[in-house]
Every structure is written in structure tokens, then in C-alpha cells.
Amino acid sequence: TNFEKETKNMELIEMSKNVNKKKAYQLTHAMQTRKVQDAIDSVLPVSAWVRYNDIDTTTGEAKEVVVIESEGEIFGTISKTFIREFVDILQAFGEDDDLAIKVVQGTSKAGRKFVSCEIV
Fold this sequence. Notes:
By secondary structure, this protein is an alpha+beta fold. It is built from 3 helices and 8 strands; from the N terminus they run αβαβββββαββ. The longest helix has 14 residues, at 80-93.
């Protein structure tokens, strides 16, 4: 079944303390996940998060993914820049109850747009 495929092809890296197995499954399999890019210039209070590797069944390639729950909505991204900054924020501020990030967009030297985040 599709469920078994998805479960076998995913490895959890880390998650917020308030996330149990059921919550992790809900966050990583939510049908209504929005792209972080859709939230540019928005402040997202972070109530839960999961960081995991999604393994492509065809190529075997692993993509790192972060999903964030904010005010009942779930946002996900594979943006390396966003994930690196989010992890830095977590390392600096830990599991603050009032952790909030702002989704920001930048432009690389090559002219490509990218998404990142900053602490609010």
C-alpha cells in the first residue's frame, strides 16, 4: 500500500518535545500542507515542528524536509536555506513556548529567489 511505502521511505531526524508518534505522522502526512513560500512576510508562531528525510522511492535520494504547525496550519519546505536557519534558531532559542519566526525571501548573487526565516 501507499501508506507502507511512505512510512518506510521516511526517517525522522528530530522534532519538538510536544510531538509524539501520532502527531509526527499527522504533521508529515497532512494533505493540507502549505508551502513555506506561501507565507513570505508572515509571522508564524511555531506550536510544533518535525524535521525528517524523505527518501525518493525511485532514486533513493534523501531530501530533508521541515514541517511546522502554526495556528492550526501546517507549512512545509525542502529549502536548504530555510532549514539551516530554522535549525540555527532552534539551537539558539530551544523550545521557547513563544517561539515565532518570520518567513522572508532573499535573492542570491546569481539572481535566484530563495526563502529563509528569522526569529521574531
